[in-house]
């Protein structure tokens, strides 16, 4: 880990230094291809218990056959397996191996939330439960078309807040911060609260949180401006961003680095080096 930290530090410091010189200044793994191939062609069997059905379904899914895993997942979900409920929720939300159906996705995620009990919780399933709370929160925030679920931002706030505090889940903290930053009916804007939750998630290397916190600090968006610290967070986010969904992070960084002056860049380097020393 220490070696990785030095390489990562060198990459980020190099990015900021180059800018300063510029003139414009989910998952379970299963062993063996043979096992996965067998799962891909195996007909639905009678399982001895929900856990065995879940195992077989995940093997089939990992072999590239999501549709063939659905019945086994439903068997496991009906037997109370939270991971099966979560997987079905994601599949229906994404139209992955099934026809997309937001309400069915919502129902599977809601089942996890409804059955969660702090006193008897299995902490090995912590990430699955936290993700379900966030998913149900997002459905409540936006609602589901066809009047199947009315938007309820206050319920979304409650769900995000629970997952952000009880599970210390970075994605929940990010969604909570977004809600405080943007506001919604029944949820007034609170930029200071947004920055607080973004900072907690950013410290966990949540890339979107790093980018949004950086933008808020750099521009003084509802919080006292801290341009160098904001530039540091945007630099970290830029290095961690991947895929089309996070292209905005690169664009945001490019705009900020052009607007930054020499003092901003040099101070950001100091903050960056200190941050990486603390982490690695």
From TrEMBL:
Entries under Pfam families matching the protein: Sel1
Protein name, UniProt field: Exopolysaccharide biosynthesis protein
Organism: Rhodoblastus sphagnicola
InterPro entries assigned to the protein according to its UniProt record, in alphabetical order: Sel1-like, Sel1_AlgK, TPR-like_helical_dom_sf
UniProt cross-references to PANTHER family, sorted A to Z: ERAD-ASSOCIATED E3 UBIQUITIN-PROTEIN LIGASE COMPONENT HRD3, SEL-1-LIKE PROTEIN
